[in-house]
């Protein structure tokens, strides 16, 4: 093969294993609720993936669309088998979906509550579609527990220790790595009989210039970081402290709360929601005085009935979500005055699809892969029409 041939040869497509690894980085399975079913449903990890379709629901019509488009991977938000199953026989609608996808060589992957909780995730995409900014989680998950490691070492050993501890998982702060604080000081000790000191003499008090090193680390990496420190430190018995740091709210969690650039009437905000979200036969509904001003906005993609009180308690003027029930909605508006916008479940989650597709495309591109990633616009809201009011009383 000539250099020109090599240059013109398209790069190999990613495998399903490659794509799943990236999806798990974007939407970590550890963020999923305990009851949830996320991850790879069917598919051969070594198969090539050239074309991907994102959709909300793994229903028969979406499976048919995936087959018609000739995709290799279907990524859905909702699980196919949320409560598990002992059979995938084609005697049920879900079983037929599995058979049709496998027969067509299409893998199925689900990112559900892990995508809900991720930052950015489903509710970030909903908030962005509505023009809501300065976002924070409505119901944050606890941040990853963090420790601080403090140790002391001769100056000529510090750089190696920093490298080793960083490789073991210490020193990561946001987008920065190998973060540490160092300061000079004096260490003193006396080697006792049986010791094998790197510096000093048995029975004699020693005074040595040392550097104090401080690094943060995920608590889950505590054992690995300490083991790395003991292996890299020149002293026979290095001194160190591990200090648990106070827990703090994380950036991941359910829903988001933020603000509009300028306050606007609830009527105008309802128009904003109508224009931003895809239309469904069932449409949406709202509660509140159309003339009242709204500024602080809470959102929760999908069923957000359980976070009504949370949204009101957080100071939201209006809460946008789906699947609100009669009694809780009536009670919260009477008690707090919060306005409600109840949209179809599918419509509140659909904005995540193009957002997730763009993030996956970017991540695969950074890894040197070019994949055709598409978004389904097929409306899979279960309702086919809305019955207007106005009958007999």
SSE topology sketch:
Elements: H1 3-8, H2 16-26, E1 39-42, E2 51-55, H3 60-69, E3 73-76, H4 93-103, E4 107-110, H5 113-117, H6 122-129, E5 133-142, E6 146-153, H7 158-167, E7 181-189, E8 206-218, H8 222-232, E9 240-244, E10 249-265, H9 266-276, E11 285-287, E12 293-303, H10 308-313, E13 318-322, H11 326-336, E14 339-342, H12 345-349, H13 352-366, E15 372-375
Helix pairs in contact: 2-13, 3-4, 7-8
Counting DSSP E segments of at least 2 residues, the number of strands comes to: 15
Biggest sheet, open or closed, and with what strands and sense?
6 strands, mixed
Widest beta sheet: strand line-up: 5-10-12-13-14-11
Radius of gyration: 28 Å
What is the helix content? Answer: 25-40%
The CATH H-level homologous superfamily of the largest domain: NIF3 (NGG1p interacting factor 3)-like
H/E element sequence: HHEEHEHEHHEEHEEHEEHEEHEHEHHE
Strand fraction equals: 25-35%
Mean pLDDT reading: 94
What is the rounded distance between the termini? Answer: 82 Å
Give structural attributes:
393 residues, alpha/beta, Udp-n-acetylmuramoylalanyl-d-glutamate--2,6- Diaminopimelate Ligase, Chain: A, domain 1, 3 domains, 6-stranded mixed beta sheet, 13 helices
């Amino acid at each position: 093969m000539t250099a020109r041939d090599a240059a013109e040869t398209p790069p190999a497509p990613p495998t399903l294993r490659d794509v799943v690894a990236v999806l798990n980085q974007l939407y970590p399975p550890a963020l999923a609720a305990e009851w949830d079913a996320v991850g790879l449903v069917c598919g051969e990890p070594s198969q090539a993936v050239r074309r991907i379709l994102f959709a909300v629901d793994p229903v028969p019509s979406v499976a048919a669309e995936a087959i018609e488009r000739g995709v290799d991977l279907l990524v859905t938000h909702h699980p196919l088998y949320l409560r598990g199953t002992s059979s995938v026989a084609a005697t049920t609608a879900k079983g037929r979906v599995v058979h049709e996808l496998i027969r067509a060589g299409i893998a199925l992957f689900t990112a559900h509550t892990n995508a809900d909780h991720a930052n950015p995730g489903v509710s970030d995409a909903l908030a962005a579609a509505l023009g809501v900014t300065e976002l924070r989680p409505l119901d944050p998950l606890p941040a990853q527990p963090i420790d601080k490691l403090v140790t002391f070492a001769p100056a000529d050993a510090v750089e190696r220790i920093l490298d080793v501890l960083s490789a073991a998982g210490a020193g990561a702060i946001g987008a920065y790595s190998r973060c540490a604080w160092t300061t000079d000081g004096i260490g003193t000790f006396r080697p006792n009989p049986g010791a094998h000191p790197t510096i000093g003499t048995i029975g004699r008090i020693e005074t040595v210039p040392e550097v104090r090193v401080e690094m943060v680390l995920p608590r889950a990496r505590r054992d690995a970081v300490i083991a790395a420190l003991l292996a890299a430190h020149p002293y026979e018995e290095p001194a160190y402290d591990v200090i648990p740091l106070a827990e703090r709210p994380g950036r991941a969690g359910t829903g988001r709360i933020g603000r509009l650039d300028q306050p606007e009437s609830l009527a105008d905000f309802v128009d904003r929601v109508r224009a931003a979200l895809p239309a469904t036969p069932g449409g949406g509904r709202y509660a509140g005085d159309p003339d009242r001003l709204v500024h602080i906005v809470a959102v929760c993609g999908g069923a957000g009935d359980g976070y009504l009180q949370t949204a009101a308690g957080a100071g939201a003027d209006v809460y946008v979500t789906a699947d609100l029930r009669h009694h809780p909605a009536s009670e919260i508006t009477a008690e707090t005055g919060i306005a409600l916008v109840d949209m179809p479940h599918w419509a509140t989650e659909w904005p995540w699809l193009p957002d997730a597709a763009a993030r996956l495309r970017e991540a695969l591109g950074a890894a040197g892969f070019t994949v055709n990633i598409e978004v389904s616009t097929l409306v899979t809201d279960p309702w086919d029409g809305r019955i207007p009011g106005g009958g007999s009383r």
